[in-house]
């Protein structure tokens, strides 16, 4: 079983969406998807209501997810760690114990083959349109990642 972790800052906007989207695209008997945040702001809480609503509009239910903080033990649990932006990347890489840990960490848009602006923008301070844009971006990225993983 391949285990994949999605990581953003607070684990309430981007990573829960990426978690739900990729989970919907991959068979559960071969892949396990989870998400976490680099910060400890929202531990135990639901994803942002706007992320839940955006996912629901696209027939994905993320209301069962709970926010948690990324920990060093995640390097032992997960095969691939997708981060949403360069700040998340630096926060996770700082916790890496060795080259094997570091090799697991990837910018999600870069791994999906996007050529420009390799960061998923944080929609937290925006409105529903910003969440829709992030959803579309992550959906496109997860299409490419799922296709690659299923090869």
UniProtKB/TrEMBL annotation:
Enzyme Commission code(s) on record: 3.1.3.48
One Pfam family here: LMWPc
- State the InterPro entries in the record: LMW_PTPase (IPR050438), Ptyr_pPase (IPR023485), Ptyr_pPase_sf (IPR036196), Tyr_phospatase_low_mol_wt (IPR017867)
Q: Which residues form the active site?
A: 8 (nucleophile), 14, 122 (proton donor)
Q: Which UniProt keywords apply?
A: Hydrolase, Protein phosphatase
Q: Cite the Phosphotyrosine protein phosphatase I domain residue spans from the record.
A: 2-148
Gene Ontology MF term list: protein tyrosine phosphatase activity
The record's SUPFAM superfamilies line, in alphabetical order, gives:
Phosphotyrosine protein phosphatases I (SSF52788)
Domain of life of the source: Bacteria
Family note: Belongs to the low molecular weight phosphotyrosine protein phosphatase family.
Record PANTHER family: LOW MOLECULAR WEIGHT PHOSPHOTYROSINE PROTEIN PHOSPHATASE, LOW MOLECULAR WEIGHT PROTEIN TYROSINE PHOSPHATASE
Would you tell me the protein name for this molecule? protein-tyrosine-phosphatase
